[in-house]
Amino acid sequence: MDHYVVFGHPIGHSKSPLIHRLFAEQTGQTLDYQAALAPLDRFTAFAKHFFESGLGANVTVPFKEEAYRMADLLTERGRRAGAVNTLARQADGSLLGDNTDGAGLVRDLKVNHGVALKDKRILLLGAGGAVRGALEPLLTEEPHVLVVANRTVEKAQQLAQEFADLGPILPAGYDWLEEPVDIIINATSASLSGDLPPIPPILVQRGETFCYDMMYAQEPTAFCRWAVQHHAGQAVDGLGMLVEQAAEAFYLWRGVRPDSAPVLAELRRLMAEG
Ligand code: ATR
Questions:
Q1: 34, 78, 142, 219 — which has fewest CB within 10 A?
Q2: Does the pLDDT at position 192 exceed 90?
């Protein structure tokens, strides 16, 4: 049996085992995928032990930077992200590190929601790990401009400097934002506590601006509620990004791209049931 795992801490509520089980069924692949609670102080040893027989791992909070450091080689997007959410054991036993989060975001936007990114004014809220993973895939889509706004402006400035060679990226503080944009992506961890970054409503062009929250929950997130309240064109949560980053990982491991739509529909159905 080919063994796969998702490492995290906590990990109990992870949807990854279900998603990968559904992908495996759908594509006729035989594999085993489990969730593993990795010890906070011994991630690398724990993961190495798994890879004595295991083939691939997803990595979630708080181990993505450690996974980046333990990878023997990195994809370009993994290197740029400085964090790894997917590890794949190669034929020679070495570990390839990849970051599929940003690609999952772009695919959810473009394929599932039909949002074009080329020549668009995109605003990213936040400057933490979630944003870092999204920058390379978003800039590859050639937006008109990608503005990174953060409470701590210095972090946005640092990211803008680091990714400037990939396209038009500008740092901002929230109170610098004065014009409507086409797409707003919330990548702050504020939603976790039901909070909102201090985003001015002027950013939303009535009936037009597409608002995307990387977070998801059974109830609409604070950011999605804000978007609806200010008459955004659409307000969408990040469940699709979760399924798409998993599909990218599955593809890396198995060389087969699963159809994400029925899996996303099943997750929505289960979440609605509670
Ligand atoms: P992640 O890996 O999820 O991106 P992170 O690296 O801890 O998590 O980054 C969290 C991001 O959310 C940061 O950009 C943080 O802003 P600061 O850099 O200024 O701390 C942002 N954030 C968290 N809570 C916020 C809040 N209530 N308002 C605005 N921004 C918030």
A1: 219
A2: no
